[in-house]
Amino acid sequence: GDQRFTWAEFVAAYHRVANALIARGLEKGEKVCLLTRSDAEMLILIFGVVKAGGTVVPLSPLFEEQGIARMIERSDSRLLFATENNRAKVEAIRDSLGGLPPDGLIAVDFDAAGWTGFDAFLGDAHSDDPGIPLSSDDDFNIMYTSGTTGDPKGMVHSHKSRLLYPLGWGTAAQIGPGATVLLATPLYHNGTWITMLPALHHGGKVVIMPKFDAGDFLRLVQDEKVTHTFAVPTQLIVSLERPDFDS
Question: Tens of pLDDT along 10-33?
């Protein structure tokens, strides 16, 4: 939308999340699930978890409820952040989430019984660097993929493997400080990180689409002077087929 963050605001925001997680008792290496919209807040949560020394587990809301429950349980996550649009799915599986503590549900944008509101979660957490030491072999995230038969498989990425995105692919694709990257696929999709991580590592600009629309996609490319994007073939086809594409 129209929400914009400077680098200072972005860093301060995810530092607050990190410090709130640490105050809540999150230990290094522990997992935190995100069942949220693809927006600036989700990006802040991703880096807040990692900055606290945790391992972030972004989940796709497209999976059915029991599939989501299995991913939460198998990842051994301590906390789950969810947005209002995904609340019903969590409520449907709540009794089967035995691995989460009683206060393990964080409501990002709503208030409900049995959930900790986001403001209450943040509390008086400060925006200073929490200073948690991280090594290249520490786990960065778990991404669940449905690219094979059977249940989704959890792919573990280390800090080192994630750093190869900006240093390898990002350098080859010339995603540097002057780049503007349009995220047209969800933040729980591993392909999205192909452009997102290099842009953030090198100090570029990231533009997030919460939901893909071909008209909005083309408008953002033009208005924000987008230099790079990751898209699946269907997205490119419907964009090319728009009658106003040439203009």
Answer: 999 999 999 999 999 999 999 999
Q: Which residues contact 97 (CB under 8 A, 6 or more apart)?
A: 69, 72, 73, 80, 104
Spatial distance between the Cα atoms of 44 and 118, rounded to a whole number of angstroms = 13
**CA-to-CA separations, 44 to 18, 49, 80, 85, in angstroms, rounded:** 10, 9, 15, 18
Q: In a 3-state reduction of DSSP, which class is residue 169?
A: helix
Sheet of 31-35, strands arranged across: 116-117, 105-107, 77-82, 31-35, 55-58, 139-145, 153-158
CA neighbor of 199 nearest in space, from 7, 34, 3, 36: 7
CA–CA distance, 212 with 231 (Å, rounded to integer): 10
The two structure tokens encoding residue 220: 């953002």
Residue 242 and residue 219 in contact, taking contact as beta carbons nearer than 8 Å: no
If pLDDT is split at 50, 70 and 90, which confidence band does 147 have? Answer: low
Contact of 228 with 192, CB cutoff 8 Å: no
Cα–Cα distances in Å, from 181 out to 87, 97, 106, 218, 229?
A: 30, 36, 29, 13, 6
Residues listed for the chain:
247
Asked if pLDDT for residue 83 goes beyond 90, the answer is: yes
- What span, in angstroms and rounded, lies between the C-alpha atoms of 80 and 35? 7
